[in-house]
Specification:
125 residues; alpha+beta; two-stranded antiparallel sheet; 4 helices; globular; binds zinc ion
Length: 125
Amino acid sequence: MSDSPYIEFRDHGRAWFEDVIRNHYEEALARANSLLDEATVDENGCYVTETISPQKLRFLGRQERAYRFIFCLFNHYAANSTEVVRHRCNNRRCINPDHMQLGDHRENHWDDVDFRANGVDFRLI
Ligand SMILES: [Zn+2]
């Protein structure tokens, strides 16, 4: 069988993160650390950016949310487009990688429901 029955699917988000992590890690890490330095740490340990909505950055020709960039970088993880980086602290302006967790859109939705019902217990983060 010379023809492969499989079509290779290249997820652009994942390909970009793979490139960043493999080939531009030092530069990306410096960028992430400067974002963390600029953020304000609140009483919950959240690293909150000055922006109104989640902060974005441009790196290697792609615009990405800063929290997603930092999470993937610190965990050496190339997230694909369907994966969501969730905020366990429910503060979308927070870029503390320890407050984030990988999930999908469905889980992200339930996070919101749970937060409205129960709030956040920061002792558990
Ligand atoms: Zn946080």
